[in-house]
Specification:
The complex is a heterotetramer of chains A (314), B (349), C (277) and D (296). Chain A is mainly alpha-helical and 314 residues long. Chain A has 13 helices and no strands. Chain D is mostly helical. Chain D contains 11 helices and no strands. The chains are: A mainly alpha (314), B alpha/beta (349), C alpha/beta (277), D mainly alpha (296).
């Protein structure tokens, strides 16, 4: 098991290397001078020069890269010329709301989608199944920001049950915290829920049609034992994968949903930085999220190894 | 006849809904199995033999499949039992071993977990007792180092061992009827011989009857007391095993026996070929289902379907011993000369 | 006076390393295998799954590169041949595969599949190729319009006949048949076996016939080699091997074959249980 | 076996029986039919819509700002008095163009990368590491970052989305090609002495077109969604050029006073994406045998 884990960690190195290169290059695919672009047309030549100096843009590319990488590895993501603080500090101060939102959305998605997927698979072809699957197509077709707008229109503008936008930290009380996060989490979690439900259903169907389910039925096992013991453990593997793979889009989706609901999270930080073309902050945020994604998938890989005895062998 | 019937299948029909319309994969199959007896069901792929097995156990998804007729086990019709009672019967009164031992065991649970589950689903006992019983079952089925096997996963075992595990699970409820669906098809010859010997030994130590489904007439010769031959969803011949090999009556059975290269056959002779191909279930011929491939077919064969005729009395003089049931589904069986194929050589010996 | 062998295999070996890198486990799939195939004969290679018989067949054609040994075809070593020469030698040695369902490209018509086989080996005008395809289709017993069929419109036996036609069309002298009938029903199997036999008589072909089924191998082969764990444990004329097996493994294999008649099965069981007095 | 059904011109090589089955399956596939109809309807409106509007998408009319839907302004007007229907129709041109271009570009690139990776082992190792690296970035985030670097412009949206989605297509192509590569007919071709070109482009490529088509459909839908999100965030199509996303952005600030500015463009996006997803799902049922709904 230890070897398995170490190997998985080893496999991350090239992926992280590509991630680093891509993030680094973001600064350099800008048409023209990145420093000038960042400061805008009104900036003085002296200011641009100063920023170019500060960002090290005058050095050869590979020196810039290793300088930047060295910084990243020691936790130095650079300093934003607009915020006047380090990128790391800015990210840290915006992390809380994003994490709360993403976790809440993921919980909602899993709790709704997994049972729905199982029920749909067991009642394959019935109205319930068709209804659920219709809903999932709808879920996949409505992007989170749009669903957010519709939810605001319905629950905040129309019914006036919930606040239109804004954010209260957990320190303001759990109920208050949730009151502000409920709609954003629904908006963010629905597409995730749809994906998980479809995956659950299809992997359940694969498993339900398998020979070992037939053996189980021939043993005299009840439908319940078959579904929840034999099928679920097998079917949970692909579901786990889909949770891991879509975690990234969940976090990214959070960025968009935050804008809809004015939540001061990383997403809003990114969007504000896009307006300002603050590439340093964007680099840092993108890097943080990509690394988080890679780590989450590492954990999922290890879980996979624990659940499926065949994985460690091959 | 002293031995009463354990399983009586009458006019079993199993139909599926497919996108090209409904098909009847098993079409009016009758047979009986007596206590302690082994009945073979032979036929080529697509003849409905596996569906017959699944129908007896009612393993098919009843959303797609529908049954009619009756399957009486000890006088109780399994097809009309409520699902909860059927579930109690599965694994205790009748059990099954499947063909592909790799996919028939759940890959994410240990062997121990799966064998113990097969025990405790029908018998109330402590985990400890179940464990002990599981070990003894593995010993009975010739699994070496049973304690170690209990902790292993299916992919860590060989095909032969996995098949023994499946047999152990099937035996856990002391079934009266064992249905073996191509139990050795995926195995090598030497392993096949071991598994067949094991099944035979287990059967002789109890009065368990079995239904053995296979495409391999060699396995039939080794294992069965009586045989039914299936073609395109129907039984075309039923006979005592010796009688079937000595004097096959249906043209299809004869053709089948003559197509097999035998280990002691004449190598200089070309093998028999059954011309044409099996029609699909979507366009079943109106007359005899074998007519278009049969050398002896007449207009009558092509126009009207022959019944499964009881010919026990007419063929009894060919046999040395008691009259055992003999049935043929052919209009012309009386008129087909016997020396049409390689079977003759064997009948003489 | 024995005729000159068509194919001489000497000390052929192939090992596979364990999947895990740094794994010391080495599996000898083919271990010092030697045999000859004479013109016009069928050489049977039997053994159980994993014994290395299929690897041997593939190594001959360098579909798997063997580690050592030599394979000389008409006096020339295939294993030392430059790619270009190997390419044209493949006209002489063709292969027929086990699975009639995956051995034909589902997206191509039968005629195109056969035409492609020709195109790979010969530069011929289209008209000549088409003519040859039609001739070969006729030879394996298909009506002309099968040219336009797709593989999924055919039965397993028909597909396997197309597989044989694909091998035949380039005019080989040796065909390596890797379990050519084991995926087929018995009544279909006999069609293919008879056809292989007829083609041999007519065209003077040699076959390397790889199979796990001893009855089939016995029926079609002139000589047989028995493989176990990568090695040939016994080889000789078919009748000798079957009537007087020398190696214990051969005997074990022969004993395991199911009887051809229930009476023989009973006799064998009683012979086993009653002690010899 | 004497007569054979005539071959069909529509599905060459299929006998009439098979063709009618195929057509019946398409017709019976409610998803393909629904999805197809929705898309046709949208396309029709996108084409003839400009003829039906009282004013163009850029014509401001300050006295008539924020009018609710009426018989003249079907979707109402926005805060500059521009006809919302005209703007949504004009936005559909941008969205469909972006979606289609991205689907086309990613299919081409993905096909080549996926096939090369599936066939050549060394290339596979390098290409897959790079694709893995790219896929570690959530699609929309990478798109935002690229837009920030390249500058906010409609053409850049296409570039960014193509970069972001190509790895997903390449993955699908690669894994289908790997399955095909294991088929015996590929080994048979090697035994016959076929060149790598023949094996890869003549024999493997046609077999991965179905999964590619299905994936392209979904990329089409995803591109439309992502373009809308980018424009909504101000990182996509720059105003005043109308796009569904930036109309929604304008609508958001006025959500209390002008619900129509959110509802109509929103419903349009939903309908289009729903149509494409139905089509994609239906195509998968039709083309991918593993997803056949009826067994046996």
């Amino acid at each position: 098991m230890l070897i398995f884990v170490l190997k998985r960690i080893g496999a991350l190195v090239p992926v992280l290397a590509v991630v680093a290169v891509v993030v680094f290059l973001l600064m350099h695919i800008t048409p023209g001078d990145a420093a000038a672009v960042m400061l805008g047309p009104e900036a003085s030549a002296a200011d641009v020069d100063a920023l170019r100096q500060e960002l090290g843009l005058n050095d050869p590319l590979y020196i810039q890269f290793f300088g930047w990488l060295g910084g990243v590895l020691t936790g130095d993501l650079g300093t934003s010329p607009f915020l006047g603080e380090s990128v790391a500090a800015a990210l840290l101060s915006h992390l809380g709301p994003t994490l709360s939102l993403a976790i809440l959305a993921e919980l909602f998605a899993i709790l709704v989608a997994v049972p729905a997927g199982i029920i749909a698979a067991r009642r394959r072809g019935t109205l319930i199944d068709q209804g659920f699957m219709g809903l999932t197509i709808l879920g996949i077709s409505v992007p989170s920001f749009l669903l957010g707008l519709f939810l605001i229109l319905c629950f905040s503008v129309g019914l006036r049950w919930l606040p239109v936008a804004g954010y209260q930290p957990l320190s303001a009380g759990l109920v208050e915290h949730l009151r502000y996060l409920l709609l954003p989490a629904l908006a963010l979690g629905s597409m995730q829920a749809a994906l998980i439900a479809r995956m659950t259903r299809s992997s359940m169907l694969d498993v339900l049609g398998s020979n070992y389910m037939k053996t189980g039925k021939a043993k005299g096992l009840s439908d319940f034992a078959l579904t929840y013991k034999h099928a679920f453990k097998n079917a949970s593997l692909p579901v786990l994968t889909v949770v891991g793979q879509t975690f990234g889009s969940l976090v990214a989706g959070a960025a968009v949903v935050e804008t809809v609901f004015n939540i001061p999270g990383i997403g809003q930080l990114i969007i504000n930085s896009v307006d300002r073309r603050d590439l340093v902050v964007i680099q840092g945020a993108v890097l943080l999220i990509a690394v988080a994604y890679v780590l989450i998938n590492l954990i999922i890989d290890i879980l996979y190894g624990l659940l499926d005895p065949r994985v460690q062998v091959s | 006849m002293t031995n009463p019937a354990l399983l009586t299948v009458t006019d079993l029909k199993t139909s599926f809904l497919t996108e090209r319309g409904p098909v009847t994969a098993v079409d009016g199959v009758p047979f009986t199995v007596r206590r302690g007896e082994t009945l073979g069901i032979v036929g080529e792929s697509g003849c409905g033999k596996s569906v017959t097995a699944d129908s007896i156990m009612r393993l098919l998804d009843e959303k797609d499949a529908s049954y009619s007729g009756s399957v009486e086990l000890n006088g109780r019709d399994l097809l009309s039992l409520p699902e909860t009672e059927m579930r109690r019967a599965r694994g205790s009164e009748l059990a099954m071993i499947a063909q592909d031992s790799m996919s028939s065991l759940n890959p994410v649970f240990t062997i121990g977990n799966q064998v113990i589950e097969a025990i405790t689903v029908h018998q109330k006992m402590s985990q400890k007792d179940a464990y002990r019983l599981a070990i003894s079952l593995l010993e009975r089925t010739g699994v070496p180092e049973p304690e170690h096997r209990m902790t292993q996963y299916p992919h860590e075992l060989s095909g032969g061992l996995r098949q023994r595990i499946l047999i152990a699970m099937a035996l856990s409820g002391n079934p009266k009827l064992l249905i073996a669906d191509e139990p050795t098809t995926a195995l090598d010859v030497t392993t096949q011989a071991q598994i067949l010997t094991l099944i035979r030994a287990l059967q002789s130590s109890s009065d368990m009857a079995s239904v053995l489904i296979t495409h391999d007439l060699g396995v039939v010769a080794e294992m069965c007391d009586r045989v039914i031959v299936m073609y395109l969803g129907q039984v075309v011949e039923e006979a005592d095993v010796d009688a079937l090999f000595d004097s096959p009556q249906h043209p299809y059975t004869r053709g089948l026996l003559a197509s097999i290269p035998e280990i002691d056959g004449d190598r200089s002779q070309p093998l028999n070929v059954i011309a044409g191909r099996v029609p699909t279930l979507h366009d079943v011929p109106t007359g005899c289902r074998f007519a278009e491939r049969c050398d002896f077919a007449t207009d009558k064969c092509r126009d009207s379907a022959p019944p499964l005729e009881d010919v026990t009395l007419e063929t009894v003089d060919m046999l040395a011993g008691d009259a055992t049931p003999r049935k043929v589904r052919c209009w012309n069986w009386r008129h087909i000369p016997m020396n049409t194929s390689a079977t003759t050589a064997k009948a003489i010996r | 006076m024995t005729p000159q062998p068509l194919l001489e295999v000497r000390n052929l070996s192939k090992s596979f390393h364990g999947r895990r890198s740094g794994d010391a486990k080495v599996m000898k799939a083919v271990d010092d295998v030697s045999f000859d195939i004479l013109p016009g004969e069928t050489f049977g290679l039997v053994g159980e799954s994993g014994c290395g018989k299929s690897t041997t067949g593939r190594a001959l054609l360098r579909l798997i590169e063997p580690d050592s040994g030599s394979v000389s075809f008409q006096g020339q070593d295939l294993l030392k041949m430059p790619r270009k020469q190997l390419h044209s030698t493949r006209r002489q040695i063709q292969m027929v595969f086990q699975d009639p369902y995956s051995s034909l490209n589902p997206h191509r018509r039968v005629g195109v599949i056969l035409d492609e086989a020709l195109k790979i080996q010969y530069r011929l005008p289209r008209k000549q190729r088409t003519e040859r395809v039609h001739r070969i289709l006729d030879r394996v017993g298909f009506a002309e319009d099968y040219y336009y069929r797709f593989p999924h419109e055919m039965s397993g036996g028909q597909r396997q006949r197309i597989g044989v036609a694909r091998a035949l069309i380039v005019g080989p002298q040796l065909i390596i048949c890797d379990e050519p009938v084991s995926a087929l029903d018995v009544s279909i199997q006999s069609q293919v076996l008879n056809m292989l036999h007829d083609l041999q008589v007519e065209l003077g072909l040699s076959y390397l016939f790889i199979s796990h089924d001893l009855s089939v191998v016995r029926h079609i082969s002139h000589r047989i080699a028995v493989m176990q764990k990568g090695r040939i444990v016994e080889q000789g004329p078919t009748d000798e091997i079957f009537s007087n097996p020398q190696h214990p493994y051969t005997r074990q294999l022969l004993d395991a074959i199911p009887a051809s008649h229930p009476r023989l099965a009973r006799e064998r069981r009683t012979a086993l249980t009653t002690p010899v007095s | 076996m004497t007569s054979f059904a005539p071959r069909s011109p529509l599905f060459p090589g299929m006998t009439a029986d098979r063709r009618s089955l195929q057509l019946r399956r398409i017709r019976n596939n409610s998803q393909v039919m629904t999805g197809g109809s929705i898309l046709l309807l949208i396309l029709l409106i996108a084409l003839i819509g400009p003829l039906l509007t009282p004013s163009g998408p850029y014509e401001t009319d300050t006295p008539n700002r924020l009018l609710p839907p009426s018989t003249t302004n079907w979707f109402g007007t926005d805060n500059f008095g521009r006809d919302l229907f005209a703007r949504v129709v004009s936005g559909s041109h941008v969205s469909l163009m972006v979606g289609f271009s991205v689907a086309l570009i990613t299919s081409g690139l993905g096909l080549v990368i996926g096939l090369v990776a599936a066939y050549f082992k060394t290339a596979d190792r390098i290409l897959m590491r790079i694709l893995d690296g790219f896929m570690a970035f959530p699609a929309i985030l990478l798109a935002i970052a690229i837009m920030a670097a390249l500058g906010v412009q409609t053409e850049n949206v296409i570039v960014a989305l193509s970069l972001v989605f190509t790895p997903y297509v390449a993955r699908v192509v690669r894994s289908s090609a790997l399955v095909v590569k294991e088929q015996t007919y590929i080994e048979s071709l090697r035994a016959q002495g076929a060149s790598a070109y023949r094996v890869l482009w003549v024999n493997i490529a046609p077999n991965v077109l179905s999964p590619l088509l299905i994936q392209a459909t979904f990329i089409f839908a995803d591109s439309i969604i992502t373009e809308a999100a980018l424009s909504f965030l101000g990182a996509g199509v720059p105003p005043p050029e109308p796009s569904w996303g930036n109309i929604l952005f304008d609508g958001k600030t006025l959500i209390f006073s002008a619900w129509w500015m959110t509802v109509f463009p929103g419903l349009t996006i939903m309908l289009v994406v729903l149509g494409i997803n139905f089509l994609g799902d239906g195509l998968r049922d039709l083309l991918d045998p593993r997803h056949k709904s009826i067994r046996k």
